[in-house]
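Field log, afternoon session.

UNIT: design team B
ACTIVITY: writing a sequence onto a fixed backbone
BACKBONE:
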């Protein structure tokens, strides 16, 4: 998108946000997030939050958001912990024992659906549910390994390899799932959270099937989940995935739009649709050479990004995936710096 016309959000009734890396980073709101959500509410838009973080219940997340200045209700929050509990409730008899590897919030969700959370394989669990918890350790994984080898169904709330922090990406639940995968020689029987589409389709269903835009910071969870759900998506560059990741994204994890932050919801000059219609447009052109992609021209860095996506995502031998980008001229070098690419 470029100058002129209304904001991106004008085309959607419901906006579904990821949380970590989009609305907040650990326990602090990302600059502009509070104002963006307030503006959506003021404009009559519906808002929902879909998070793979299984360490908090929906009401706790809503309280956290409200404490940051983002008014939120528990029914606007969809967590992978609650979704996993619902899946197990549908598949297991009432009162069935479920070994919980994760935070207290996950245990509470299991209890809330009439199942019995346990902590040891000796209690004969019929299922293991695994979610992120900062205190999860070797002993927890060992109990899960024993239970799964004995025949328990293995459900993971999500498989995010990392989670964002003020010190950079830290190991997420996917890293802990990978440890069990290595020990068992196989993966979970079921993964509930993003990139599975359930959280997004549930949000849209609760909103009466309203036109929905997904906003996330991770290509491998938020954006791929939106793609699987058949929903348009906006990648914001405030969290895990950066421009280098975007250029290398496989078809199933490519967003519809990209912006540096949530200003892209409202300001046409702060968002771009990707890829560009061709490797030339909006003042930029890109060509694949043997050792690099050459970017030339002038204009918005986001338009340069759209052109670069057109080149690197192109099918066939002319595609530039994996090649470095080389600027031609000062304007191109400035654009690459703005995008966080070597110039």
């Amino acid at each position: 998108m470029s100058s002129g016309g209304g904001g991106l959000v004008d085309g959607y009734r419901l906006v579904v946000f990821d949380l970590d890396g989009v609305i907040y980073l650990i326990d602090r709101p990302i600059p502009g997030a509070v104002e963006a959500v307030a503006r959506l509410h003021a404009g009559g838009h519906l808002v929902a939050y879909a998070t793979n973080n299984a360490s908090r219940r929906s009401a706790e997340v809503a309280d956290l958001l409200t404490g940051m200045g983002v008014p939120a209700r528990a029914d606007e929050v969809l967590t992978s912990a609650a979704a996993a509990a619902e899946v197990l409730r549908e598949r297991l008899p009432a009162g069935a024992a479920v070994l919980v590897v994760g935070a207290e919030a996950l245990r509470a969700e299991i209890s809330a659906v009439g199942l019995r959370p346990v902590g040891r394989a000796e209690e004969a669990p019929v299922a293991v549910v695994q979610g992120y918890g900062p205190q999860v350790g070797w002993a927890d994984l060992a109990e899960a390994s024993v239970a799964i080898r004995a025949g328990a169904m293995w459900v993971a709330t999500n498989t995010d390899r990392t989670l964002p922090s003020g010190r950079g990406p830290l190991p997420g639940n996917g890293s802990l799932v990978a440890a069990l995968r290595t020990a068992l020689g196989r993966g979970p029987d079921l993964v509930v959270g993003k990139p599975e589409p359930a959280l997004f389709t549930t949000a849209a269903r609760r909103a009466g099937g309203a036109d929905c835009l997904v906003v996330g910071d991770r290509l491998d969870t938020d954006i791929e989940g939106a793609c699987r759900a058949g929903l348009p998506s906006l990648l914001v560059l405030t969290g895990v995935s950066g421009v280098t990741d975007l250029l290398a994204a496989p078809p199933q994890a490519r967003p519809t739009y990209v912006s540096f932050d949530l200003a892209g919801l409202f300001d046409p000059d702060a968002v771009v649709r990707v890829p560009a219609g061709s490797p030339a447009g909006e003042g930029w052109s890109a060509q694949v050479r043997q050792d690099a992609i050459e970017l030339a021209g002038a204009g918005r860095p986001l338009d340069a990004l759209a052109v670069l996506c057109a080149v690197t995502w192109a099918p066939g031998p002319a595609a530039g995936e994996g090649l470095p980008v080389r600027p031609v001229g000062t304007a191109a070098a400035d654009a690459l710096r703005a995008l966080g690419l070597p110039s």
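LOG NOTE: The mean pLDDT is 94.
NEXT ACTIVITY: expression trials, pending approval
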